[in-house]
Amino acid sequence: MKDKNNDAQEKSEEIIDTEQIVSDDKEVNDEDHSEDDAGHANSEEVNLLEENEKLNDLLLRSRAELDNFQKRTEKQLIQAQLYSTEKLSSELLIIMDSLEAAEKVATSPNIKIDDLIKGNTLLLKTAKEVFEKLNLEEINPLNEKFDPDFHQAMATKDSDSDDNTVLEVMQKGYKLNSKLLRPALVIVSKKNQ
Fold it and tell me: pLDDT digit string (tens) for 120-159?
C-alpha cells in the first residue's frame, strides 16, 4: 500500500509540475504577447510622431509661402501705384509747360488778343489729348436722355422737348474707364403744362 501511496504522490507531484510548466508557458506567452503589444504600440507611436513632424513641416512651409505671397502682392501694389502716378505726373507736366508758355505770352507788352485766343485753344487741345491718353472720358450729354448714373439735375425747365431731356450742360462730367469721377451738372426738360 505504501507503494501505491508513493506512486499516487509521485503522480500528483508530476501533475503539479506539469501544471506549473503549463502556467509558466502561459506567462511566457503572455509576456511575448505584451511585448508584441508594446512593440506594436511603440511603432504606432513612432509613425504618429513622424506624421506629426511632416504636418508641422508642411504647416511651416505653407505659412512661409503665404507670407512671401503677401509681401510680393504688397510690393506689386506699390509698384502699380507708382507707375500710375508716374504716368499721370508726366502727362500733367505737358499741361504745366503749356500753362507756363501761355503765361509768358500773357505778360508780354505787345500781346494781341488773337495770340491769347490761339494759346488758349492750343492749351485746351493739349489738355484733351492728355485726358485721352489717361482714358478720361468726357460726359457732355446735351440733348440726350437724363441718366442719373452719370448726370446730376440742377434744375428743370419747361420745354417742348421730351421729358427728362438734357437741355443745358452747366458743367461737364468725367469718368475714368467705367468709374464715374464727376457727374455732369445739367438742366433737364419738363413738358409744358
Answer: 888 899 899 989 988 899 999 999 999 999 999 999 998 8
Phi, psi of 4 (to 5 degrees): -65, -40
Q: 58 lies in a domain?
A: no
Look at residues 139, 191, 140 and name the one whose alpha carbon lies nearest to residue 164.
191
Q: Which residue segment(s) compose the domain that 176 sits in?
A: 137-193
Distance, CA of 179 to chain centre:
19
Cα dihedral value 145, 148, 152, 156, nearest 10? 50
Residue 63: inside a domain, yes or no? no
CATH number of 151's domain:
2.30.22.10
8 Å CB contact between 174 and 141: no
Total domains, the chain: 1
Helix axes 113-133, 2-106, angle to 10 degrees: 170
| pTM, to two decimals | 0.55
Q: Give me the amino acid identity at 84.
A: S
CA–CA gap between residue 105 and residue 18 (Å, rounded):
129
Residue 164 forms part of a structural domain: yes
Whether 154 is in a domain gets the answer yes
State phi, psi for 148 to the nearest 5 degrees. -65, -15
